[in-house]
Amino acid sequence: MATLYTKKYQQKKFFVEQGLLTSAGYLVNEYSIVLQPHEELSNTIMQEKKIYAETYQCPEALYVKPRITLVHFKQHQLMEMHIVRQIKNITATLSSFKVELKDFGSFPSHTIYINVVSKVQIMDIVKELRASQKLMKLDDDNKPHFLTEPNIGIARKLLPWQYEKSWLEYEHKHFHGRFIADYVLLLKRREGTKAWQTAGKFMFENINTATTQGNLFGAA
User: Fold this and answer.
1) To which CATH superfamily is domain 26-206 assigned?
2) 37, 99, 151, 176: least buried by Cβ within 10 Å?
3) Distance CA 81, CA 200 (A)
4) Lowest mean pLDDT among 1-10, 64-73, 152-161, 162-171
5) C-alpha dist (Å) from residue 180 to 15, 28, 38, 99, 126
6) Is 4 exposed, middle or buried (0-12, 13-18, 19+ CB in 10 A)?
7) Model confidence over 32-76: pLDDT tens digits?
């Protein structure tokens, strides 16, 4: 019994020292896996968000950087190393592709966003991530939310008047941009906080798994 107690104590001490455990239990983070436009395009979109914030009294529009969120979830920080390993496995097989942005769309009656025209390859990545959703499920009340409609948000959680008035303008407003997607970012923030940190950047390596396996097992 003493040995078992000692092992448990040492394990708990290790988790506390690593920042994985508090007196209330294992630490929980929010995570997002995202595609991010290049800096010049991001600045252009942020300028559009600034105009929206000032015109429609919506400072919240400035809080979120321009991103395409592939999946958002909560998970114990203890699981992060496994999540990172799985993202590496997925992105190793992916190839770079062009993302085309055109004009604006909306989710009535709360969100204005920039349309993403090139959706197929983005949704293919989401499909790959969805196959690993068990890693992203904290519990039955906290399941991962996967992207269903690729977009880059201008403003979300709008009041009815903000949405109705701004959509009259943005329904007819034009926007065009493009960027090459060649990596995803894993972002995280401590539950209950606002600031996101980058937990990892994963380049698309375009490794042909079938060819690799053939090299490993076929040649003698």
Assistant:
1) Cyclic phosphodiesterase (3.90.1140.10)
2) 176
3) 11
4) 1-10
5) 39, 32, 8, 6, 17
6) exposed
7) 999 999 999 999 999 999 999 999 999 999 998 999 999 999 999
